[in-house]
Amino acid sequence: MVLQRILLVEDEADIQAVARVALEMVGGFEVQVCSSGQQALQEAEAFSPDLLVLDVMMPGMDGPDTLKALRERSTLAEVPAIFMTAKVQPAEVEYYRSLGALGVIAKPFDPMMLANQVRQLVEEGA
Amino acid sequence: MSEQVLAELARLKQLYLEQLPATLEQIQQLGQQMAQAPATNLAAALHQRLHALAGSAGVHGLKALGEVARNLELQLAQWQKTTQEQAPSLLDQSWVEGLQLLTCLQSRQETVLEDGLLLRPVRQEQDDVCVWLVESDLKVADELEGQLIRFNFRLRRFVSLQAAFEASEESLPLALLVDFCCCSEGCAVDEQDWCIINQLVAKGCPLVVISEKEDFQSRIQASRARAVGYFLKPLDYPLLITRLSHLLDRQHAAPARVLIIDDDQLLAQHYRLVLMAAGMDVELLNAAQELMSALEVFRPELVLIDLHMPDYSGPELAGVIRQHEQWASLPLVYLSAETNFEQRVSALDRGGDDYLIKPISNRELVAAVRTRIDRARQLESLISKDSLTGLLKHASIKEIIEVEVARAHRDQQPACVVMLDIDHFKAVNDRYGHATGDVVILSVATLLRQRLRKSDFLGRYGGEEFAVILPNCDQQQAFRLMDEIRKHFSTLQFTHENSSFQCTISIGIAVTTDHPHAKGADLLVLADEALYQAKAMGRNLVRIHA
Fold this sequence. Notes:
Strand content of chain B: 15-25%
Number of strands of chain B: 17
Distance between the termini of chain B: 37 Å
Distance between the termini of chain A: 8 Å
CATH class of the largest domain in chain B: Alpha Beta
Oligomer: heterodimer
Structural class of chain A: alpha/beta
Strand content of chain A: 15-25%
Mean pLDDT of chain B: 84
CATH architecture of the largest domain in chain B: 2-Layer Sandwich
Helix content of chain B: 40-55%
CATH architecture of chain A: 3-Layer(aba) Sandwich
Number of strands of chain A: 5
Number of helices of chain A: 5
Strand order of the largest sheet of chain A: 2-1-3-4-5
Number of domains of chain B: 4
Order of helices and strands of chain A: EHEHEHEHEH
Helix content of chain A: 40-55%
CATH topology of the largest domain in chain B: Alpha-Beta Plaits
Mean pLDDT of chain A: 90
Shape of chain B: globular
Radius of gyration of chain A: 13 Å
Low-confidence stretches of chain B: 109-126
Strand order of the largest sheet of chain B: 2-1-3-4-5
Largest sheet of chain B: 5 strands, parallel
């Protein structure tokens, strides 16, 4: 699978900005940012991402809910997903995997390392 | 490419820092309202802001701020989960202090929150250490400059205190040497000079007074100006340089290590953050059974112990620590809300050194811990340091190398053991005398001290032999570092009477990753072998043990 287009769902503007630098400039990916689950539902299909990166805790629709809703769209049913969250106990990682995610990236992330972490999770999942 | 990334990240961080005060102000207000009159809608608004801060501070490298916010977020989440009747107690002292801590971290973000300071920086190459001099007597200034340069101190001269003050806007020196006699007419310091001196000292510039006068009044004057040294003319250079080296040591001192034992995880986490914000390394003990291995691995300089814990009490754990000879002098401080006098006295009887009463303010906690550790370090240094160089003595450096090598193997990080020896030192002693020989030894010590990182350790291993351990340092880095030190040393000019001479050093290195089963003592032997290879190959060389 070619990993080029990443849809990032994250409500925090500050984190969005840093993640964009980390994924676009450091990682060389093409990134579309959505500030809420709702927005992701509206824009995801048109963007046709290779990967979904979702913040777990967001007001309104949280990350897991957003993923579930995105999965119901046939074009997005198979797109791999990664969660980002502050709390990463092993049990939680298992829980997020059970929701169909490849894995979890811990927040705060290191901007210089984020793209590598993403690639690694995708490679391991492939 | 990566420069571009760094510039972009820096720009984002700048934007973030600009709006941070307003964010914190909001959190502060909501947080205080919560403490006074908790309400669910307030909690929801605050929770969202804390969550955002916890996530965003970290990505901008403000790790401590992020952790404090996370801690408050968790505390608040717990409050939200609990029924309202029992809830108020959750937002007590530690909640209010956490809020204070946020503000205090923000105001210190430039100095404390940069990742570097908290994560112990790997200093690349150190700049020359600068010493400032306010002196009108050119002859004294020339002579001083000549002496200081040999010990890698760079001297910057000023004609007046005012000029020094202006320069202090840009940077601060290791020390400010002021000749009191040149401040103003008649050898007295006038009002304006006082004012400038006070401001410079307040900025964190250590003052060393040079004077012709040995009388009580002059010394009192220096003391009032909070001088850290008072030197009479003609200057005793070795003494002055030793004093400067001590100042440098203090700047280079590794962060204080504190172990906290408290069953209340939230409170322990709070203490940890407070001490971390003050620049210390802090670990929490998770299970009492792991106490001794935690001491072994982390090697705390002070242990904070809660008096009452469910399974094992503070004094019981103190007793276990004291059963081990090597921890006999480790400062143990109890923390507890215990107000019963008898109980407190009996706790001190059982191996504790001091007693802090909860609730304790952040400032008091930091001051109490820091003072104890400073004292312990002073004592330790008298016992373990070589009097000429101020470096660790043979036994001490050997012990530290043992610990650091074990740590390197455990963490699977490379560490390098280095042996260093002055070439043909006996000839120097024979030709120029022991006093000059001592100057050569002292200058190796000073050079090493300046070039090595905060986390490195160095010791005087024998007469003219030095041992160094470089944790988290691979073969290439070690070679580069030591080769620069070697080159630099060979350019130093030593003088004896009217002749001048140069000296060289030979260096041997052994790396943990090349010898996965070697202990500290083994690596010392290997480094020594490499050192002898360097000697055999003609000296003034760095060799790595193959």
